[in-house]
């Protein structure tokens, strides 16, 4: 019996299609993408500059906020420039290594941001429940360790995905209907079992984002319990106000992400271009809105911005 030799060609290059179904609208879609990206960059850079140069903001809360701003810049920069290149120049080609590198930074940065939000919830818990020991508990050494832990966790948990993807032969279609690469979106084009990729992705989600949400909810439950035991109404209002900005940022980060996850898993009737637009909003909304929320709701930052932009001009 003759045995036919079958050669499997594994793709080393892929082509990101942008938003399929809306190709003729790419230029128009790029306008808000570009505008929001520039605003996000300027807002977060301004926030970092203010925290660095204003000595009164050298407190744990603002240092963690500075870390969040750095992460927001990374989160938007890993996705939006490539999307704009697709929209403007039809430059969707990307190597397999480039695709894996992009998705590594996207997923790890997302995990890092989730970790920083958890650290900020811990910061608010210490500030409200143990105000007299706040600076003693969150000293410089602890702040550095918490920051390193958040960034290391993002890198370490996502790093195995590189090897899980590199082992796969990609012999199916190499056209990716998206503006950026992501783990399962790339893995499903493999000609081998991706069960390990799926289960590891679920594991990472559970031990990072889901665990962070549970701990954040637990922290704020204890925070609210402590606040409503404060006898003074003015003190209660002040304590609630200090948490308001962080709660807004938490909701802005997690709700679109949860919605995207549910749409991808159960929204089979929703058009693909809606999936892709929502996924891009998840990458752009937090970096865009976080500095605005803190700039509006935090008096110290608002005063520092006014002094930096207007007082020095006089």
**Quick one: overall form?**
globular
CATH T-level fold name: Rhopdopsin 7-helix transmembrane proteins
Order of helices and strands: EHHHEHHHEHHHHH
According to DSSP, the number of beta strands is: 3
Known CATH architecture: Up-down Bundle
What share of residues are in beta strands?
under 5%
Helix content: over 70%
Mean pLDDT: 89
Which strand order do you get reading across the main beta sheet? 2-1-3
Straight-line N-to-C gap: 91 Å
CATH superfamily: Rhodopsin 7-helix transmembrane proteins
Instruction: Give the number of helices.
Output: 11
Domain count: the total is 1
Structural class: mainly alpha
Residue stretches low in confidence (pLDDT < 50, at least 5 long) are: 1-6
Domain G-protein coupled receptors family 1 profile: 43-294
InterPro entries: GPCR_Rhodpsn (IPR000276), GPCR_Rhodpsn_7TM (IPR017452), Olfact_rcpt (IPR000725), OR51/52/56-like (IPR050402)
Main location: membrane
Subcellular location: Cell membrane; Membrane
In short:
The chain is mostly helical and 314 residues long. It has helices at residues 26-53, 60-77, 80-89, 96-129, 134-137, 140-166, 183-187, 195-227, 233-266, 272-297, 299-309; strands at 13-16, 93-95, 175-176.
Structure in words:
Odorant receptor. Residues 43-294 form the G-protein coupled receptors family 1 profile domain. It is a multi-pass membrane protein. The protein is mostly helical. The chain has one domain: Rhodopsin 7-helix transmembrane proteins (Rhopdopsin 7-helix transmembrane proteins, Up-down Bundle). The chain is built from eleven helices and three strands; from the N terminus they run E-H-H-H-E-H-H-H-E-H-H-H-H-H. Helix 4 packs antiparallel against helix 9. The N and C termini lie far apart (91 Å).
């Amino acid at each position: 019996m003759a045995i036919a030799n079958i050669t499997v060609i594994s793709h080393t290059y892929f082509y990101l299609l942008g938003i399929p179904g809306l190709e003729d609208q790419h230029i128009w879609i790029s306008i808000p993408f570009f505008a929001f990206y520039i605003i996000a960059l300027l807002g977060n850079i301004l926030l970092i500059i203010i925290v660095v140069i204003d000595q009164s903001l050298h407190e744990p809360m603002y240092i963690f906020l500075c870390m969040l701003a750095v992460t927001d810049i990374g989160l938007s920069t890993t996705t939006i420039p490539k999307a704009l290149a697709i929209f403007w120049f039809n430059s969707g080609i990307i190597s397999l290594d480039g695709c894996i590198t992009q998705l590594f930074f996207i997923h790890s940065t997302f995990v890092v941001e989730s970790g920083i939000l958890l650290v900020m919830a811990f910061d608010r818990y210490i500030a409200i429940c143990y105000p007299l020991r706040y600076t003693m508990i969150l000293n410089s050494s602890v702040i550095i360790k918490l920051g390193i832990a958040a960034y290391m966790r993002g890198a370490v948990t996502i790093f195995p995905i590189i090897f899980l993807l590199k082992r796969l032969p990609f012999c199916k279609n190499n056209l990716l209907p998206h503006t950026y690469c992501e783990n399962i979106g790339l893995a499903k084009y493999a000609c081998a079992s991706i069960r390990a990729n799926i289960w590891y992705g679920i594991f990472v989600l559970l031990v990072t984002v889901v665990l962070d949400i549970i701990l954040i909810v637990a922290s704020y439950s204890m925070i609210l319990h402590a606040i409503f035991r404060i006898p003074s109404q003015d003190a209660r209002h002040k304590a609630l106000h200090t948490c308001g900005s962080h709660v807004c940022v938490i909701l802005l980060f997690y709700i679109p992400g949860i919605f995207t996850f549910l749409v991808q898993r159960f929204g089979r009737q929703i058009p693909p271009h809606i999936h892709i637009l929502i996924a891009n909003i998840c990458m752009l909304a937090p970096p865009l809105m976080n500095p605005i929320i803190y700039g509006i709701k935090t008096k110290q930052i608002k005063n520092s911005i006014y002094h930096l932009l207007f007082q020095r001009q006089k």
